[in-house]
């Protein structure tokens, strides 16, 4: 995971076919509201910067299925000289909804 932009996947293949060269979080829609009229109807679209530094571990049964496979991510931060590993940065699971 990039410490600046968060999760990134490269060269995703299906069999022998490349289906994606790069997939990553580009932007986040952040919705603010407040008591005054201007804040109540304001929507900001912020760039996804420093997401990796602020990433927290996912919770089984809360963020992901209890049966999910958790995938760690390691990244460097300018805040420390050592690398940081988040043991539950990503989760992979199948959720059968019955809809084809």
TrEMBL record:
InterPro entries attached to this UniProt entry: Cu_amine_oxidase, Cu_amine_oxidase_C, Cu_amine_oxidase_C_sf
Highest taxon of the lineage: Eukaryota
GO BP terms: amine metabolic process
Record domain Copper amine oxidase catalytic: where: 4-99
Keyword Membrane applies: no
Species in which this protein is naturally found: Patella caerulea
Entry keyword set: Copper, Metal-binding, Oxidoreductase, TPQ
Lineage: Eukaryota, Metazoa, Spiralia, Lophotrochozoa, Mollusca
Cofactor(s) annotated in UniProt: Cu cation
Protein name listed in UniProt: Amine oxidase
Cofactor note: Contains 1 topaquinone per subunit.
GO MF annotations, alphabetized: copper ion binding; primary methylamine oxidase activity; quinone binding
Keyword Metal-binding (UniProt): yes
PANTHER family the UniProt entry points to: AMINE OXIDASE, COPPER AMINE OXIDASE
Record-level GO cellular component terms: plasma membrane
Pfam families, per the entry: Cu_amine_oxid (PF01179)
EC number: 1.4.3.-
Post-translational modifications reported in the UniProt record: Topaquinone (TPQ) is generated by copper-dependent autoxidation of a specific tyrosyl residue.
Family per record: Belongs to the copper/topaquinone oxidase family.
């Amino acid at each position: 995971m990039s410490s600046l932009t968060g999760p990134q996947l490269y060269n995703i293949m299906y069999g022998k076919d490349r289906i994606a060269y790069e997939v990553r979080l580009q932007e986040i829609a952040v919705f603010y509201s407040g008591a005054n009229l201007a804040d109540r109807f304001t929507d900001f679209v912020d760039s996804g910067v420093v997401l990796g530094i602020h990433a927290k571990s996912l919770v089984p049964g809360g963020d992901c299925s209890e049966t999910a496979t958790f995938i760690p991510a390691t990244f460097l931060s300018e805040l420390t000289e050592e690398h940081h590993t988040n043991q539950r940065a990503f989760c992979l699971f199948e959720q059968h909804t019955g809809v084809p």
